[in-house]
Amino acid sequence: MFFHKKEPISTVVNVDGANPRFAQLLLEQFGGATGELTAALQYWVQSFHCEDAGIKDMLQDIAIEEFSHLEMVGKLIEVHTKNVDQTEAYKSTLFAVRGVGPHLIR
Question: What angle do CA 89, 95, 99 make, to 5 degrees?
Answer without folding.
Answer: 145
